[in-house]
Amino acid sequence: MSRDPVRNIQKVVPSQPTFRDVAPGGWDYIYIIYIETAARYGLVNGAGGRFRPGDPVTREEMAAMIVRALGLEKDAAARAGSAPSFADGAQVSGWARGYVAVARERGLIQGMATGDSRRATGPPGPRRPA
């Protein structure tokens, strides 16, 4: 383990990877220290033991990572039962509703302009740069 001198964060590389799809020899393995550090600090959870490095990052996932990074998880949990205030708020996945609502309320996301409304869902972005 090493410490990032700028951010004062302990970088992590465990003996057993957290995610079974980020393995030595894969293209994504060069990012293992960042993936594992993000997992250790609770920024990423993966799904079913997988990180899914080749999949695009959804707007819901991005909202969740930002809210977690800012330490606003209690706020997200408190808003988990209601649809975010977007034209398509009811389409936001149940697990992500609180995160999207908090990100919206804090001005961290604005949604996508579609006609005369703002939408939370839409095409995902690339996972690698995220």
Helices and strands in order, then pairings?
Elements lengths: L1 E3 L4 E3 L20 H9 L18 H11 L3 H6 L18 H9 L6 E3 L2 E3 L11
Antiparallel strand pairs: 1-2, 3-4
Quaternary structure state of the chains depicted? single chain
Helix content: 25-40%
Q: Give, in order, the helices and strands.
A: EEHHHHEE
Low-pLDDT runs: 126-130
Q: Which radius of gyration do the C-alpha atoms yield?
A: 16 Å
Overall, the morphology is elongated
Largest sheet: 2 strands, antiparallel
Distance between the termini: 23 Å
Tally of separate domains: 2
- Compute the number of strand runs: 4
DSSP strand (E) fraction?
Answer: 5-15%
**What is the average per-residue confidence, as pLDDT, rounded to a whole number?**
79
Number of helices: 4
Please state how the strands of the largest beta sheet are arranged side by side. 1-2
Which key features would you list for this structure?
4 helices, 130 residues, 2 domains, disordered C terminus, alpha+beta, 9% strand, two-stranded antiparallel sheet
Tell me about this structure.
With 130 residues, the chain is α+β, with helices and mostly antiparallel strands. The chain has four helices and four strands. The strands form two sheets. A two-stranded antiparallel sheet has the order 1-2. Strands 3-4 form a two-stranded antiparallel ribbon. Strand 1 and strand 2 form a beta hairpin. Helix 2 packs across helix 4. The protein is elongated. Residues 126-130 have low confidence and may be disordered.
